Amino acid sequence: MKVCKFGGTSMANSACIKRVADIVLSDKTIGYVVVSAPGKREKNDTKVTDLLYACLDKVRYGANPSDAFWPIRERFENIVRELGIDLDLTEDYEEIVSALKNGTTKDFIASRGEYFSAKILAKYIGWTFIDAKDLVRFDEKGNFLSGETNAYARGRLLNVKNIVIPGFYGSTSTGEIKTFSRGGSDITGAIVARATYSTMYENWTDVDGFMKCDPRLVENPEIMDVITYKELRELSYMGANVLHPDSIFPVRKHDIPIHIRNTFNPSAKGTLIVPTKKLFSGVYERADSVVTGIAGKRDFIAINIEKSMMNNELGFMRKVLEVIERNGLCVEHIPSGIDTLSVIIDSNDQNEERIDHIVESVREICHPDVIEIDRNLALIAVVGHGMLRKKGTATKVCSALAQANINIRMLVQGSSELNVIVGVENKDYESAIIALYKEFLD
Ligand code: ASP
Q1: Does a structural domain hold residue 146?
Q2: Is the pLDDT at 92 greater than 70, yes or no?
Q3: N or C: more exposed end of the chain, with fewer CB within 10 A?
């Protein structure tokens, strides 16, 4: 049995939903469908999820709840009308308006896009709607509870099929709605695949597959045929955003492959994401190359610390890391020398605020000779299982960047040899990606 997840563009309007219905009804092996909220209908359109967040903000700033919700209601009413289904969602719309009046949560409002999407598709194709709040469990703080979710979802789904489920959200034990981070319907699809022991998780989107490099930086990069979970995780964590990076965790429990497919071009081969190359050796070897893909992100923060005899000071690194942990930040990388240590942190607004505090605490506790902040770092990951067997990948990375006149600020290669990560200045980010693409993938 297969699980299919359809993303926002696949659910954007009635014409798209008809395509989805054709895909689902023409394949008898599909047992479960997970959907996103309607996405953009054209380039400058707004996703329903963003409309919902904006609606809540407007109400919090004093707008009338029914007026603020009206454009969203209208969008769903149009879809229902155009599909010609007999589905009255008035009670649900009214529930949202009264929730808005009574100061509802952000997560509840954000989740309603997926809720309506799933109700509409279920009605259109004559399948059963099962609410994600009865399948996916979170704790009160919004942390996803994997084991409990699997038990619940398995109990509800295992002996039934032809089910449509909203993605992106679940609930706490007291029934409060909580969402995943943005793009989280991908995770719901993976949860359903795991719970139902599905043999395949098809993730339908609006591109032909996972590209070897960011198409905004490199013209027409090739699509990857096959990629492993680990490679995908590295690439999507570093910014390649076809699939939510956390979608891997549920499916890897049962080695379920994920197939990225295009709703608007169903005959395209897509990208197959497999647990290990061994399990799929026939398919994988054909597509194997040293580097599978390249991805990166700008705006990392490096905390550069220098202290003479640092290497002899027992517990120095631990003390630094404890300060960062106490401030609630995750460490991305820790490149170090004999007397130097850099801690790389992902920057977002929240992190920025805590950096000054971290610097002060490290000064007090560790007495470094120098401590500096560099807010200008871009990281690029060159990823591929193939480099395990091949000599000289790191050398090629360095020489390609040197030839493009780019200074390498940091270089990390884990012993797993799945990737080489380089740090360059933000201003060199684009040219570095282009140089590496030419070296390995062109
Ligand atoms: N609708 C949510 C978002 O826009 C979740 C999803 O589409 O996966 O992020």
Answers
A1: yes
A2: yes
A3: C
